Amino acid sequence: MSDTAQLTYKGKTMEFPVVEGTENELAIDIKALRASSGMITLDPGYKNTGSCESAITFLNGEKGILRYRGYSIEELAEHADFLEVAYLLIFGELPTKEQLAKFDHDIKAESHVDEEMKKILDGFPKSAHPMGVIASLTSALIAFNPSSVNVSSEKDMYHAIVRLLAKFPVLVSWTHRKRMGLPLDYGDDSLGYVENIHKMMFKRPNKEYQKNPLVIEALDKLLILHADHEQNCSTSTVRIVGSSHAGLFASISAGISALWGPLHGGANQAVLEMLQAIADDDGDTKKYMAKAKDKEDPFRLMGFGHRVYKNFDPRAKIIKRSADNVLGSLHMEDPLLEIAKGLEKEALEDPYFVKRKLYPNVDFYSGIIYRALGIPVEMFTVMFALGRLPGWIAQWREMRLRGEPIGRPRQVYIGETLRPFKKLEDR
Ligand code: CMC
Question: Is the pLDDT score of 222 beyond 90?
Answer without folding.
Answer: yes
